[in-house]
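Quick one: examine this chain and its backbone structure tokens and tell me how the chain folds. Here goes:
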Amino acid sequence: MALPENELASSFESQVKPFFEGQFALGSFKGAGGLTLRYAKREAPTPGGTLVLVKGRTEFLTKYAELFYDLRDLPLSIYLLDLRGQGLSDRLLPDHEKGYVSDFQDYVDDLSIFIDTVVQPDSRQARSEQNPLRGAETKHGQSLVMLTHSMGGTVALLYANTHPGKVSGMILCAPMLGINPRPFPVSVARFLAHGASFLGFGAAYVPGGGPYDPAKPFASNDVTHSQARFSLNQRLVAAQPADALGSPTYGWVDQAFAGMDRISADHRNLTMPVLLLRAGADTVVDNRPQSGFCSDLPACALAEMPGAKHEILMEVDTIRNLAIGLIREFLQRNVLPAKERLP
């Protein structure tokens, strides 16, 4: 079902974009502290499983239009949001291109509000309880799986750890359990980020950082081998410049370390099925914590994506199709009731 990348340039305008704009409704809600956060949703015609996408840093709603086009045959309700400080959600600094968050917990609180008010509001409780699914369920009777990328994995894991029973499965693509703060060692990066934030420089770009570069050459990117998908994402930002986000700030890095530390300390409480897709050639996150994390959990499968850079779901077809196949298998096994599973 996945579109080949050599057809992406033409197929996106003729197939993917009309699908996304026609099938997904856009909306907004008030997150923690009253920030306005944007989201997109496609509700299945009959009650069934629910998939919530929690994206990585810099990412925006339309970046995942191709993925959901490729998964369009699955009878799932799908929800995705722009995290605070990125996409079309409210930004946190006067310079909107600075990647910043004042407290990593704000991401988690936003996700909690999103789940409770948009994904599974109380008004749907009676309807969903009439259609219980097998296996782990949320309090509203809907089986809910989270699909995450990078920082989104950290946010979703913290949410699941503090909301037991709400999440019945987790797919972690290149999860941010550690970061690669090159050229500095982790200990130095921690010291610099925390010290700069403490001294009032949390809103400053990290060394070497700066605004979004619309002309960044493909050859210097560290997230994908796919020139077609790299170029498409540049075109999407050019069409919607408000989606642009530059480098992280000291404050964001400091809070990222705090979030990862909480996962390191508390992740053993997670009991739902987990699929962890590791990017074999990742230079953005540190892959080393992933093996220990997965082995600590009772139902975690770790799958290596050989040669993949950080954005597994934006990679070349050979890598991306392997990942999508594993995601499909996981969803059919852990979300879809038996009568709705595809052959």
